[in-house]
Design goal:
This protein is an alpha+beta fold and about 280 residues long. It contains 8 helices and 13 strands.
Length: about 280
Amino acid sequence: MRIAWACGADFPDADTDLPPLLDAARAAGHHSEIAVWDDASIDWAAFDLVVVRSCWDYVPRRDEWLAWARTVPRLQNSADVLAWNTDKTYLRELVAAGIDVIETRWDVRAGDDLGAHDEWVVKPAISAGSADTARWSSPEQVYAHSEALQAAGRTSMVQPYITSVDDVGETGLLFFGGEYSHAFRKGALLVRDDEARSLPELKEDISARTATPEQVAMATEVLATASRILGEQPLYARIDLVDGPRGPQLMELELAEPSFFLPHAEGSADRVLAAITRG
């Protein structure tokens, strides 16, 4: 099998998942290579499978990126999945389906109700790596950030800052071919009242974590619900959870270009290849 790992031009060296994926493919007898998604010289039809990996430059070029995705035969995750998942308004559909998602207010403007919270996170609905995202302690900062995003033609999101992230961190759970693989802990990234970065954050506090049965059950439900909505089973999925007041809450479902953090889980790259082979 010939496999292409699709990346942005600036990110192959920063993507720590690529070396174990290349090694696992070689060990399994497959040819695989890194391919830049907007390289016009690449014949994507020559590959048996194209797997979207670190295309972290898609945000300002999302329409172009999705147009590329629709031209690539045998792409995973599929172009339809990428289109749905790269706009975080998908969270509305998951809430409607009964998933416990962090309370979210959309396109907030000055004077709107923010809820009784001490801190809030403001971010655009289309972003990657916490770009243009910030944690604010005053309503005035929340309103200003939200309105600035809207003035730029972007949908804004306002969520309460979940304080457990400071101590416990986030828990990300990885699924390949619909099967749970491993989990990791991500430490707090946002600094209170610090201006938002314009570029994705690549330096994260990551460590291995054993997910609880409750977290695995929650993540499994999230993925099953999304698969029903989409009408297909994604090849890969990352479900990011936080410890909320009622137990695990969904922060984000990542089906487009999430880091897998394979170096933190022995055998995980082999599980990716196994899912590809089964598919």
